[in-house]
Amino acid sequence: MPDIARDPAILRRRRRRQAVLVLVLMVAIAGASVALARLQPAPPSIERAVVLEDTVKRGSIVRQVRGLGTLVPEDTRWIPATTDGRVERILLHPGDHVTADSVILELSNPEVEQDVLEARLTLQSQLAALDNLRAQVQSEILTAQAQAADLQSQHELARMETDANVRLAKEKLVSDLTLRQSEVKTETLRKRIEIENRRVEATRLASDARLSQQQVAVDQARAVAQLRAERLLRLKVRPGFAGVLQQVPVDVGARVGTGLNLARVADPTRLKAELKIAETQAKDIEIGQLAEIDTRNGIIPGRVSRKDPAAVSGTVTVDVSLTGELPRGAVPDMTVDGTVQLERLERVLYVGRPSVGQEQSTVTLFRLAGQSGDATRVQVSLGRSSVNAIEVKSGLVEGDRVILSDMSAYDNYDRVRLK
The pTM is what? Predict the structure, then answer.
């Protein structure tokens, strides 16, 4: 059967259709490639139950700072050793209640005992010397007074003789010389009496001075004896006030020196809280601010009574005086959680404190979009903070819901999906 020649026009139409199909296919492939290139990666999914959400609100918040601390006695005293010695007995132990005169422990020191004995003997010697001197000066005064009395009697006799001679002279029974002699004798005795009286007074003054000097020696000896007796008494260590014995950092047989702490006593009924506040948060704390101390067995109100002027290891120590009653079980050195109220902020936009971001800083948070479960990253400017809330300056509006949990694992994503 002879071949039939094809029409060239048909061949051209077929080639044209093939070229159009290839061109359309290439355009479709290019469009699909562009569309795929423009598609964003699917957002990572997060279990909604594992993240912390909160809603932005407007209202009032109380600015607070929190810190851990311990309860410590307001009245704590270390009892030091007032002399060298050796620990003979420990009569009381930590936890025992003590009075002002309770003997906590006893020391021994033979030198102190010897000093007490010598001081007592010295005092007795000085007292004996004082008694002897008192008798001696009394004898001297009596001797001087006797001499004065003898002169007084001689003067009286001379005066009587002179009076008689005056009468006899008028009758020319004695000579003028005899009368003159009796008058001179009487005047001489009068002057001697004056001198003797002054000597008696001088003797008395000198005796008083000698007695005073010896009395000073007695007083010094008595003071030394009392001081050494007190040193002997202090070998029995007493607290001097009522409280609870907390520490006895020595053992029986130990040698102790003057000034070494032997015991610590505290009044357990008067406690205060010592809080450690982060130095970045302690700048606004002032004396007199209200505070609350949580002992895990009750909350005690209080006020800030002291603030350390310097930070140590990144914290500032703040003392809180307790104004309420102590709950049962509150004892010194108990760990507590304290909150100090700084101020009350009215009509501010606020949200719960995120896991990252401090006050007066800018952070990025994920804001939820409606009910879809998607959350997009937004930049938020934060203001003043409290323990559980922080002021929102910009980036969010009232009613927005944000994720407060740490989302650092999704720093490469601007959107996440909660499921």
Answer: 0.53
